């Protein structure tokens, strides 16, 4: 796709959004809007003649919805990709996860603004990085379907309180990774007792590729910030839970951390760790604190609290996403002896969130998406 003008077909049953998305795409260098369609049936007929590279595809449409269009693309036009345009509803969230399973490139949310100019600005902000990433040909390795077929048996292991491990030497991982010079972890106290992950653009597909590779008896909890709207995080958790040997759930306020459970921060809220009243357990605290780095949930917000309670016993993973959320939190984690794993540039949809910590020398290991799970296992086993 590099150097090639991409052809886009805009599919939406609302004329306002067809016009807005078409106008925004037309402003972008290297993009040609080859047509519009107001439902899935018309889109399919136009795909055959216009031969687009990419659709912007409304999920909920009459006659033939976005899911049915994706199913058609799988069978008849596998080289055509799609960015889904979804609504902030429970049904919209579930359908969006299904769309990603069917190979959609990513999704954006329809703007909540009533003013058309504000709506267009929101759409422009959301679409621009995805279009740029698509133009470079960068995508996550495989798709949700590939992750689901990875051979992992979705066997849930009984969750229990996080076990404290005796300290041992710093784990030395081998294999397909690069160890960043000057990034040796300080005050590392042996194996990690928690894994924390920050991820954004391209995240649902990346998590669905990586997390089924983790064993159900990992032995530690995982806490995750995926930049996503409310409702969608629950849909993401349910989708991942069906594919993973670990239990995956949307986090709830006040619940104790348990081993072999992955907790996803609820969209539109902040998530941190706190101590239980007796000081023996770690609990999840969901707050309505302000956004950080324009993000709510924010990886920085979560990472700081993990650093407070798991000194020298944390594996932190920073993955695909635009912006630099997570970098400040990783600095604190690094000072407190965390092992930091960064996704490499080639396997990121957007190399933003892993880039800043790598350039600052915070990252201990830089590795492709398909090797992240192995690095996590080495750090906790």
CATH fold call of the largest domain: Rossmann fold
Specify the biggest β-sheet: 8 strands, mixed
- Tell me the strand order in the biggest sheet: 6-15-14-13-7-8-10-9
Please report the first level of CATH classification, the CATH class of the largest domain. Answer: Alpha Beta
CATH architecture of the largest domain: 3-Layer(aba) Sandwich
Bin the helical content.
Answer: 25-40%
Number of discrete domains: 2
On the 0 to 100 scale, the average pLDDT is 86
Which structural class best describes the helix and strand composition? Answer: alpha/beta
CATH homologous superfamily name of the largest domain? Answer: Methylesterase CheB, C-terminal domain
**Beta-strand residue percentage:** 15-25%
The whole-angstrom Rg is 21 Å
């Amino acid at each position: 796709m590099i150097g090639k003008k991409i052809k886009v077909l805009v599919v939406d049953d609302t004329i306002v959004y067809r016009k807005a998305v078409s106008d925004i795409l037309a402003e972008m260098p290297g993009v040609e809007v080859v047509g519009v369609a107001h439902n899935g049936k018309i889109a399919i007929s136009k795909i055959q003649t216009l031969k687009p590279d990419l659709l912007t595809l409304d999920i909920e449409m009459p006659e033939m919805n976005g899911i049915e269009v994706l199913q058609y693309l799988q069978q008849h036009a596998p080289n055509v990709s799609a960015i889904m345009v979804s609504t902030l509803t429970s049904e919209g969230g579930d359908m969006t996860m299904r769309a990603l399973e069917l190979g959609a490139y990513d999704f954006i949310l329809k703007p909540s603004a009533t003013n058309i100019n504000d709506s267009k600005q929101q759409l422009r902000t959301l679409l621009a990085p995805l279009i740029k990433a698509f133009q470079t040909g960068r995508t996550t390795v495989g798709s949700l379907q590939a992750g689901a077929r990875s051979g992992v048996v979705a066997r849930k292991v009984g969750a229990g309180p996080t076990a404290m491990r005796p300290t041992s030497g710093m784990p030395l991982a081998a294999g397909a990774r690069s160890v960043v010079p000057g990034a040796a972890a300080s005050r590392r106290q042996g194996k990690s007792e928690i894994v924390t992950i920050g991820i954004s653009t391209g995240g649902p597909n990346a998590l669905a590729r990586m997390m089924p590779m983790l064993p159900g008896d990992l032995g530690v909890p995982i806490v995750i910030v995926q930049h996503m709207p409310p409702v969608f995080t629950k849909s993401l958790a349910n989708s991942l839970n069906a594919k993973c040997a670990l239990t995956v759930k949307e986090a709830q306020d006040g619940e104790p951390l348990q081993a072999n459970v992955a907790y996803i921060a609820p969209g539109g809220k902040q998530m941190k760790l706190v101590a239980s009243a007796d000081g023996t357990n770690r609990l999840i605290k969901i707050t309505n604190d302000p956004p950080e780095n324009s993000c709510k949930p924010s990886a920085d917000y979560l990472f700081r609290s993990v650093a407070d309670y798991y000194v020298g016993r944390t594996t932190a993973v920073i993955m695909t996403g635009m912006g630099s959320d997570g970098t400040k939190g990783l600095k604190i984690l690094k000072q407190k002896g965390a092992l930091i794993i960064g996704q490499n540039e080639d396997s990121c949809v957007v190399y933003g969130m892993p880039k800043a910590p790598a350039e600052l020398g915070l990252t201990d290991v830089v590795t492709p998406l398909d090797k992240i799970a192995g690095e996590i296992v080495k750090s906790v086993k």
